[in-house]
Amino acid sequence: MEDVSNTLAKRSQQPGDLEKEFPNDAKRSKSQEDPAISIEDARKEELRSDAQIVRNMEWDTSGCAHKLVSKWEAGEEGQEELRNLRQKLEDFIKIIDDKQRRMQEHLKKVDKVQKQDKDLSNEENQPVQEPAANNDIPAEKITLANSDTVRELTDTIHEDVVLDMSAKKPEIPCLDKKVVASSSSQKNGKNKKNEDTRDATETAAVDSEHQTEQPEDLRLATKIITEPETSSAQKVHTDNRRCYKCREGMRLYGQTVFQCMGYACEVKIIAKEYYYHYEKGALPVKVCETCYRSGKTCNKRKDKFVLKQNDRQPVPFYECRCGRVAHKYCTHPEDNVATFQCDHCTKEVKALPSTADLPKNELTKNLEEELLRRMRRFDENAMFTVSQQCYKENMYMNIDQLPAKIKENFTTVKKVKYAVRTISVSQKIEDVDCCIVQWIIHETTSADKNGRKWTFPQYLDSLRVFEESDDGNGKPVKDPRNKGGVVAAIILEEYFNFMKSFGYTRGFLLAQVPKPGTEYLFFMRPSWQEKVQLTQENLLGWYNKTFGEMKKNGSIIGYEVLPSSNVPSTNDSPTSVDQTRADKEPNNYLIQITEDGGNRQMNGTDIFSPMSVEIASSQDAFYDNLFDHSLEFSSLRWIRYSTAVLTLNVKNAVADDKKKREASILKKMKENAKKAAKKSKRSKVQESQGAENQLE
User: Fold this and answer.
1) Is residue 389 part of a domain?
2) CA distances from 496 to 501, 596, 599, 627 (A)
3) pLDDT digits over 8-59, tens only?
4) Which residues pair with 397 in a beta bridge?
5) Looking at the 3D structure of the chain, how many domains does it have?
6) 300 in a domain, yes or no?
7) Residue 531: which domain range?
8) Residue 2 in contact with residue 80, Cβ under 8 Å?
9) Residue 461 resides in a domain
10) d(CA 111, CA 103)
11) pLDDT tens-digit profile of 63-119?
12) Is the pTM of this model over 0.70?
């Protein structure tokens, strides 16, 4: 027995039967034969008829199943026809479900764009812009075919049934119409009729009322379902959104430096340079142009790489359910794009970790008290927290590349032992601790040939500018937006005052502006600050002013500016004019803290996050060292623009510190117990010897 398609193909050769059972096809053929009927009228009539056919699809499931059960007798040929019919119904269900899913996704995009337009117009007091014309179809006017009914029919066919071959064939208009159209197209060799049938099947899901009144919109709705695209209104208004926290629009990441991943290649891909990128896989591969041409592509196919430019990327927005948006780094680090809620929509206050939970030592307590005392002269509500992130001892310093005037003090010492600590300052902003300043400091634990101890502070923040404004009477006024520079100066001054009692009498500081494209640290800045480029002259001026104030206050006894100690880079020519000029520029400071230091001993029990960064001969070398050790501190952003890394590790740091402190206390108790036991034993021996001597 022939299959269903061949049987229906034979029937399609009888024009009379087709005209009776499929009036829609008959009308189409008549409209093509009779020139008096316009093609447009025929198309409208066809759409109405197809919509009527789809509405007739919602028949009674039980009655249709009964007809199908009694259609054919049981047999292999009947089962084959049943399987073909079931496969066609399943394909039809998939098509309907896919179109319904696409339409729902598009409607969500339309609602999102309209919502963004409304929020933007409310903020700027401008009339709401109307969405594009292809987005004007309301959701309630677009209904897809009831796929649940067809799915129930398919589930019924899956069951074991008894087929009756003598029963009358039931009428399934949509299925027979599809098969007949396919067979007729095979016979005539024309694709126009098949395309019209497909268009009618796709547009028949629209409500008949909307079809009759607006037949042109149906075609538009079908296009929207099959080709979902990003609305033009969304593209226009995406960059115009403003963060509700910082009140600024689109922000850009700071320039990132990539390391070429080619074999034995040490090239760094800096700003504006081109490179080849392989996006597939767990680890994206980035190679320079030289490695790409030579075939060093990490065992990846060259045709899969894409040429890109190392450009600044925009900071993504997080959108709350109420419509407010915020930059990613204006939010708390625990937030993400799916769970973000603005402050106005947060019903319960989260117990967020705070830098106040970090352990304190004598240094951080003194620094914090003095910082609050001095800053509250300008702002009585100022809230700052000073914490020590790490302290590690028994390290050895390489002083070969330091200036000669510094190195000559250690000629009698082969290795200089030192300890490293980081001092971080956070400011409370809207119940969030934002790190605004961090110093990383090396402290020699062994004295030089003159018996003096040295400290080497290095400022992690490569600030663009330290500005001061005039109050009109010639007196400088600190700009409240530049608290980072003020706080950095206060912390350094009080650190020198504190370290005098531990015998530290000299200091060395490197002040050099990083090259463009090598700014790893604090690269998120307010837009007003990005307009001013930091120059070597501005930076040296700030340090001169800072050390001058320290000398007036008696914190230091003097300072001296030394020539640069830059070592030419391997990528630069040794005869470079810029490099020669940089070698002659003064950018090192020899600081005379005091002449007579104290003899207090440093307490190293507050170690809870050890790290190591070597002393560098230049700012570039310092950054390179950070990069090699994965210590980019990229989460330490400027004030208002992110939360410090401190808040992420507070709980772990506190727990680890508590364990180490308990272990240290237990160790000291055991040592004291042993000492006491030895002392008591020694005293007993002495007493017994004294008694024997007395007897003698």
Assistant:
1) yes
2) 9, 13, 15, 29
3) 444 444 444 444 444 444 444 444 444 444 445 655 565 566 555 545 554 4
4) 416
5) 2
6) no
7) 355-648
8) no
9) yes
10) 12
11) 454 444 444 444 666 777 788 888 888 888 888 888 788 888 877 877 777 777 777
12) no
